[in-house]
## 1
Amino acid sequence: MLLETIEQANDIKKIKRDELPLLAQEIRDFLIRQISVTGGHLGSNLGAVELTMALHLALQLPEDKIIWDVGHQSYTHKILTGRRKEFGSLRQLHGLSGFPKRKESECDVFDTGHSSTSISAGLGLVRAREITGGNHTVVSVIGDGSLTGGMAYEALNNASKLETNFIIILNDNNMSISENVGGVSKYLNSIRTASGYLDLKKGIYNALLGTKRGDNMITRIRRAKSSFKQLVIPGMFFEDMGITYLGPVDGHDIGTMESVINDARRVEGPVLIHVLTQKGKGYRPAERHPARFHGAEPFDIETGIPAHPRTIANYTDVFSTVMCKLGQRDDRIVAITAAMPDGTGLKRFHNMYPERFFDVGIAEEHAVTFAAGLAAGGLKPIVAVYSSFLQRAYDQILHDVCIQNLPVVFAIDRAGLVGSDGETHQGIFDFTYLSGIPNMYICAPKNKWELSDMMKFAVGLGKSIAVRYPRGIAYAGLREYRAPIEPGKAEWIYRESGIALLAVGSMVKTAEEVRDALKEKGFGVSLINARFVKPIDEEAVEEACREHALIVTLEENVACGGYGEKVLDYMNRRNLQNRFLNISIPDAYVEHGNVELLKREIGIDQESIVKRICGMGMEEAHLRDGGKA
């Protein structure tokens, strides 16, 4: 197999030209086999095989630099830089990351995971090259979807001022910008990047500069040239910004791609190569259903059907159902998503109420301020977003929503540990970054029924509020405990004495397991469903301190700025002397891996928590009485 000869960066250059299509097929077959077992981002990687091969043929790694926007399309890059044998551990604990990671390889020059960042990062590397005197090539690869993010345009605006080479590859897999106009475009590209043309253009400009009428003549030449290009070049948006446009180019033609990249390297300034690719190329199920194979679970290769079909509702399903019911009851309910209608569960709402559904693209900042405008206009907006993506709109939450105390509901999905996508996607900071904002309520449900109740409560509250729920199967336990939700009020589930467990959201289930284990050891244990992180229920904390010697808070958020810190702060302010234990995520980024394994590793699983509690000197008799308070 040709693939077996690729052991390190630049080995692809040893492959014969006529064998490159065969290598591309081997890479596709390998990716399909591996991802069918481990899961991962399949469609985007199948679509970028030839593009990646062309980059590796044209460039010299690691001296030259490639920045992958988002990074989930970097699997072929990892293979071509010698990491093929590690793919059995893809997205597993301590295994190969599904995104570029500098700690994995010197060929990964920038860690990515969120969208619209690659042009900014690439521009920084270009400026660093200028200052340090380097001569290497810098390439930023960005998808057409990521261009809906405003940060990409901020970077393009700055890149237009460059006078040295910077290559941006626009990987367009749905022809969202323009279609190929054929031979004229190809002809002009070859002329405009030929060394003779570039030298002539530079010579004319230099000769005219400084002459009496030279500046005016340069302006007229540029205007005339632009007027002609408007007729035949589809990328004038970029040209008008001062960025040379090349394309569209067939992203599955390795030879053409390599040639255009080499042409682009001769441009003294920013240059954008518009590449057309097919998402999921080479695997029929992924070609037919690209959204399903964006982030795929393990699947059967022959059919594309998931190996372990989900039969139990998850929290996103519950949210989807309650959204449709809310929309039916109130025609002022509107839903906003940032390019995640399927992932956030809003597809059904969209189908039922298309006029009240808004997908703003990968533009979380705009989504939040847009929602604020909707609220100011008398509507009831619900922004459905992943926890890690809402981080991108912090100022908009603070400045545009909460200062005005507008009734925007944030439905925060994938909160807490999400698993295989790793550091960039773990939703472990939202309690922290939201709770410092005045006028913001923050709550988290203990089970699927409470999620439904909280959404109804949030819409009726008429204030800025975040409802935070985890990824995965919706907990169905504790169904009989369904006290009405009141602002800032906790729910007592089990009331004893000795140890009080105050748990938030997903950790209520864990707290119930911890309680069962402690009861077997003879301890008296109360369980309180905190419900609200802001404001915390101070009366419940006060009462728990009166009746218990040990207070234990449990949350799936980093310790810094989380629920536990708020409880401890209140206890200190009230001079409450109870012993205290905060179960939370350490102040660190959490790598990729199975969620249950991650919980065990960072010490927030049932066994670890019980061990920590029992290690605090729990032999006192008054903690073991088990009596009712």
## 2
Amino acid sequence: MKRGGLKVMTRLIGLVKPLSGYMVLAVLMGLVGHLCAAFLTVFGGVAVLNLLGFSVGLSLQAVFICLVVFALIRGVLRYAEQACNHFIAFKLLALIRDRVFDALRRLTPAKLEGKDKGNLINIITSDIELLEVFYAHTISPACIAALFTLVMVLFIGARHWALGLLALTAYVTVGIVIPVVTSKSSGDNGIRFRSNSGRLASFVLDSLRGLPETLQYGQGNQRMQQMNEMTDRLAEDEERMKRIAGRNGAVTNTVILCFDMAMLFLSAWLCGFDGALIATLALMSSFGPVVALANLGATLQNTFAAGNRVLDILEESPVVEEITGQKEIAFSGAAAKHVDFAYGETPILSDFSLEIPENKIVGIVGRSGSGKSTFLKLLMRFWQVQGGEITVSGRNVNQINTSNLRDMESFVTQETHLFHDSIRNNLRIAKLDATEEEIVEACKKASVHEFILSLPQGYDTPVGELGDTLSGGERQRLGLARAFLHDAPFMLLDEPTSNLDSLNEAVILKSLHQERSGKTVVLVSHRKSTMGIADVVYSAEQGRMS
């Protein structure tokens, strides 16, 4: 969804509300600091007038004392303002990350299955980090520039209203007109740069994951060429943005010089030498806050593009809303009643019905694409049925608290994901307060305990990123161990032995059969041999049950 810069800015500013007190403090310190910096130059002019014999109302000693005080205050407040702004920025980045991860959790898994993982990583890291520019170097400086402009226009205008009007025109031109023109001339450069950056990140991640296949089939040069082309496009976008920023800087400096000259001639004509000196020095020394805004013209395009992508996640509606506030229930069987379901325009289940009695092992066999795995995801309420209903304990899953439903179920997928951590911690995510004895017992049930003990560090052995240090069968057995550790009454097993040889499959199935007491199991597989332990076996073909 493409939003205008103003809408993105409004939404991002809305997030500052919890830290508004710090923001006001930063603005006040910045305002006073910039006034001290500007009046250092002005009081230098006052000292010159004093030496030339003009009546300025202050002794030379008093002027120098003021200069020292202004310099000290400027230094202290500059540091304090920047510290305050960065405190706000990093606090807000932490808040945004928390909200983004909460949004991703709500969107999972339905809306994320088709998402570009590399692009998501780019949003979570690079795009959110880029918002630091907005919170630390945009909101506060914009407020400071507005207040500072008001004070300086009144100060310069006190000599003559025409000088005040000229100063106001100068500030508005440099701080508003130039940034707006620059922003419009930038077009979609920022959005294009962020999108291309996300695509490159996704391509790199995909290339790393597929490195063995790339080497095996000799496609390294082709992948490298594609990566170089994407990098070149990204470099062109960045060069275009920097060229616009450079042109903006040149225009800004030229416009400032023109206004300084105009102030010099107009004030000399209206106020004489002393008035011209003070008015010109005041204007020349006071462009700092508005120049900071002018320099943000091109940068903000990139920042708003990043903010737009972050807001897309924060504002995206989940396919399946989390259910709360319902009465907790215990598991006593499940069923599918005339269920229809499709991924987009592709029908998967049609008039699908199935009974799953308590304390039974129900087998579902069928070829790939017949809807077996989708049915398990519907039982988990990862997706919403489009017709019919899924019930657990006689209640529609749409009327069961999400946490209650997930506590009753253990879901073992075809590909077990292992985090870059120890085996023990990878198992413990199924039950954070699990004792060592419970972990060992779960691993014994999954026939993986002896394997873990054979490793150099046992249960403390680190698992490589994406579990690459383990075989598919070993990862699958750890997934089963997680399910046993979770100890839910309803186990959903999606091809739990697909990566195991016939001997290890037999061991796992025997363990499942022996540990079935108090459990209801749905066992999905394309192998008919896996169904030997099932009490009843259904065949799924083209989204129907037979």
## 3
Amino acid sequence: MALKRTTKCIATLLGIGVVALSARPAAAQGLMLDRFDPAPAGDRFFGVESPFVAGPSTLHLMVLGDYAHNPLVLRNTSDNSKVGSVIKSQTFLHVNASLALWNRLAVNAEIPIGLQQSGDSPNGVASPSGGSMGDLRLGARLRLLGEYHDAFQLAVGGYVWVPSGDRGDNTWVSDGKARGMPQLILGGEGGPVVWSIAGGVEFRRQQQLEGITQGTMFKGGAGIAVQLGSHREWQIGPEGNIAISTLNSVKHNTNAEAMLGIRYRIVHDFEIGIGGGPGFTSGIGTPDFRGVAMIAYTPEQRSDRDGDGIFDDEDACPDVPGVRSEDPAKNGCPKSDRDGDGILDEVDACPDEPGVPSSDPTKHGCPLPKDRDGDGIPDDVDACPDVKGVASSDPKKHGCPPDRDNDGIPDDVDACPDVKGVPSSDPKKHGCPPDTDGDGITDDVDACPFEKGPPDPDPKKHGCPRAVRVIESAIVILQQVQFDTGKATIKHVSDALLDEVAGVMKDHPEIKKIEIQGHTDNRGTLKLNMKLSQDRADSVEKALVARGIDKARLTTHGYGPEKPIDDNKTDAGRQNNRRVEFKILEKAPKLVPADHGDHPHTDHAQ
């Protein structure tokens, strides 16, 4: 491997943090390599600040471990092959404290302690080892809009880093100069979802690290999570952070990381959490993986709407000030409940008689009225108080006997009380099955309820047409259209059949287009058969138009002997192949009246 030994080595990123290094470690100049800034104790995310201030005068404490893998790697300039990791692993312990004041202002302090750093010392570049103290961070935040549980909150804040860290050779834990960052923070809580967005400009001294400019940067982060559990003690969601140099921004001074975090509130005041995720850029200090783990003392911000000192999740009367009780059903409720029915006297319409809740304030807390027949309908509104009945919007029927056939039509006006039916303006048909096709046979016994047909002793044919049937893709004729031999002249014997075909098309306006197909056997020349089949199809079209069918609904096609349905070697087979067929090309949903126009509905079963 030919390694280019020049004053400047150009390194590139393949999923990990990379920087160009000379033989002399740049850390001697002072550089804080770790790009993870933990959010203050009490916030909802690991690295994204929250806009709220958690408490009137509340202390929050947190210890967070931060592990970064390969935050600084040296690569060969000729083929991008890895020379080695200047820093292969880096572990910090962040000690963090926040003080919330007046639910409005929060101040915080954080000190990073480098527990471990190690590397391969590639190409003579010495890797650090052991631990070092980082720069002290001081911060403040002022909430401008929104309360703790509001969907939208707004705050301003900022940090100042005091150059208190170890600035010796190869420490990589301090810039050696003060730096600062003002911030704007948005966030909120909507049901179980919490979110936060923070951004600001970090002002820091400009540094040249082997040709890569480090200096003032725009830093931002965003996170969203869902809270789970009966008390929302679990929280899980992604978050991400980005830092972009405001001076000569290139990939080696741009940082972008993301992680998935899980937090769990052990008890009301203590929380633990873990998170982890990749880095996406080649910015100095961006690892290929970062993992965090924390434990925090952060008193839960529980709501108390009525201000009685009992939190809402334990208060049985969260909107009425009350007193503590060992009975969970009465905890936080006023003592006054003379009848012991669990309904406070101040809203109990019958405070001296045990009763039940009601949406009617005049009945709330009163006993249920009498119900002699036990049908659940009080006697004072039951039209049939001594006979079990069903509810009805008609006061004269409310509580009276039910509808035996369950067709929604009361038995006293149902002409067919034991057979399900439909409404009708005709009292003799009201509640009876419909006769959709109007052939005098009701649908419940009509084998073809959408096609007119005569009675038949065979239940499968009862009410079905004798010669013409409508199926999904065709109008099927059960007889053949007869023509003069070798001609397209329709014999009079087929007049009744075509009358029925025309009648079916009139009864089915949803059939928009049919193709009249002419077919022949295979005797004779193909040219002659094709012409004969087309002529016969055209003759049928003219016959249907003469019977009142719109020609726009018809098209013709002669197929000759191309589509036989039987064996052309026999007389019977050839007879079957000489035929006319009606294929449905276009069809719309059919509007079928439930009772001759009283209650139309759409039928898709044709």
## 4
Amino acid sequence: MSQIQVSHLTFCYEGSFDSIFEDMSFSIDTNWNLGFVGRNGKGKTTFLNLLLGKQEYEGSIHASTAFDYFPYWITQEQMKNPAADFLEDLKADCQLWKVVCELGKLRQEEEILFRPFCTLSPGERTKIMLAVLFSGENDFLLIDEPTNHLDQESRENVKEYLSSKKGFILVSHDRELLDACIDHVLVLNRQTIEVQSGNFSSWWENKRRKDQFAKGENEKHLKEIGKLRQAVAKAGQWADKNESTKIGFYRHAAINEHERSLGMRDYIGAKTKKMQSRVKQMERRIEREIQEKEGLLVDLEEPVDLKLMPLEHYKSVLVNVRDYSVRYAGREEPVFSGLSFEVKKGDRIALHGENGCGKSTVIRVILEKAAGIWDVQKEIVETGICETASGLVISYVSQDTSMLKGSISKFCSENKLEESLFCSILRQLDMERVQFSKNVEDYSEGQKKKVLLAASLLMPAHLYVWDEPLNYIDVFSRMQIEKLLLKYEPTMVFVEHDKKFREQVATRVVEIN
């Protein structure tokens, strides 16, 4: 057991004018299971890279342990080969038998080590890399979002596996995973950093109470400031009134002649000077009050309520799927078969099933049929019924962000979006204004997903179709989106492996086998 000491850490990417970290200091224990939490773009992955020595920085990081990082980078050449052939390329001195043992703990057969890596599912790839990561000894492990793109069963396996381990930093936005696996949290707040014992839920409850206290204190503070300002204004008026009597007139009314005597004017001047001094003292007190309370609300997590503009369709049933099966041309086995469900106005249908069961295929069919571009002579062969209401307007969020390139202005122009409104939604999703001057391909994965979500929210639609919308999205934005969907109750079909989000949002879950 040892400690990692971070002192006065400051880091900024070359050519950028916004600092990722500014004079940051804290310490963590290598025996902890540490959950790393923060908004998208706050620097979680960047910090892991600093621990790995991949970037130069100001300040110091002292650690007596070696680090290893998940996910490993798999080359195109390695993708063609079985993982058993390149284990030592991923982790020095990695032994096959240890990897096999770790795979057993992940409830995975060892045969996946001997199949070409490119043929494996996302869950199988993740399990191999985690098995390699934990096959060593004495390393402090840096685990960056291990459950993205994983189905529910794989997530449960990873959650159970990590909860049995010790000594790692886990970056994740999955609240269930964090609660099950961690015993400390490292939080990148809006302007400060915080280390606390407990899991995510205990930290969030503590933060919620602290935020409520801070808001209450701030309200009292503002009232005190208001009273002081009123007192300053009155004292200023009194001083002005007395100053006016010094020259014999006040509000154009004549003053008694004896009050214009030199002695009386000196007396009034001294009295006025005292009043003016009192005004200045009160002004200084107001400034001290403001400075004392400055920073009280800088870390307050109070997300702005988002808005949605769903359209009203004249039909009550927007999508009808009945005894529907799909297979790819040239293959005998169907992707899925016997699928039946309806999407009625107000429904929020969650498509659920293991990776490769056909969830994205169902979404593709709905999108193409609604757009009138479905062609049964394509590579997909269908049986049964899958029909959409005529004139159906769909707002779509893809799980793929690789198509995003160029500036925000270009993206808005191509998608016929009002740029100022689009940027306003991104700001409400807590994206800093400084990001708007960058090209979208330079955004973090979470920020790219926010671009797609903002575009979808800005588009009035009868039906919202979202395919894994929350991959890489920070936990605070997830809560924000949950609140939005529960408030506006749009008609939706979505795929999302975040169990808590699915339980909160879905009116019905459709299992695809």
